[in-house]
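Board notes, transcribed. Complex of a protein with NAP.
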Amino acid sequence: MPRVPFILRISVVAMADLSSKSTVLVTGAGGRTGQIVYKKLKERSDKYNAKGFVRSQESKEKIGGHDDVYIGDIRNIETIVPAVQGIDALIILTSAVPKMKPGFDPTKGGRPEFYYEEGSFPEQVDWIGQKNQIDAAKAAGVKQIVLVGSMGGTNPNHPLNSLGNGNILIWKRKSEQYLADSGIPYTIIRAGGLQDKDGGLRELLVGKDDELLQTETKSVPRADVAEVCIQALNFEESKFKAFDLASKPEGTGTPTKDFKALFSHITTRF
Ligand SMILES: NC(=O)c1ccc[n+]([C@@H]2O[C@H](COP(=O)([O-])OP(=O)(O)OC[C@H]3O[C@@H](n4cnc5c(N)ncnc54)[C@H](OP(=O)(O)O)[C@@H]3O)[C@@H](O)[C@H]2O)c1
């Protein structure tokens, strides 16, 4: 075998290491699921170069203030462009967030009312904002996009649509369709009710067309959704697929470890 100078050998190893790592941008990285994804990617730094996208300096500091976190607004595509340069994959975890109208008193019964801030309706965030991300990532040559949406989108009369007159599930569905038509390998995860509970402890369930909403198992921990987002990057079986995601209650079923098998069960492209 020819003698290779030591320095050269080190740099070849370093280059091989760099090229085998995947650079992944998570948007909504200051959000409740987004920050779990960002943290998991950072913890797996042997495999991923993590990048984050948040809306404010405050959110950036909340997740550690690292230089790999970009600040911008998804409604303005120019602010997304720098963040998507050189990425292999994009995980979209941005969403319009309804706010509760002040003055609600739970002791008096009734239901709270919700509103969206001017300019932050689902049409602007879940449609234009997601579309901007898909367009910017496509122009930058991204190889895969994972988009987290919500179950309930098959029913235009779903109660979530009347929240703040925002039609949130309708606009989310429109951006999902846009992604599916983009030609970019995609994974669309339509989550059930999100829970702030530990991940890795439940059997995950995948479904289609909101069928899981007719069952008792229609919620899933945010930590499990975050894990599925990252695992989707590892398997060809996750690509060009859209599916509902829920979980069995903790203590029933077998906690999901084999994500290749989970993705293989999904047959739906949209
Ligand atoms: N809640 C549920 O039970 C449920 C059920 C099914 C699916 N989902 C969906 O699952 C996903 C994750 O939910 P989550 O509760 O973890 O999310 P979340 O905490 O509400 O986070 C949403 C993120 O979007 C960011 N964002 C909003 N507008 C933005 C803009 N114009 N530019 C940049 N960023 C913007 C927010 O930034 P700031 O931090 O600056 O506000 C926030 O970090 C969402 O798509 C949600 O709709 C939720």
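Residues 122-139 form the longest helix (18 residues). The chain has a mean pLDDT of 94.
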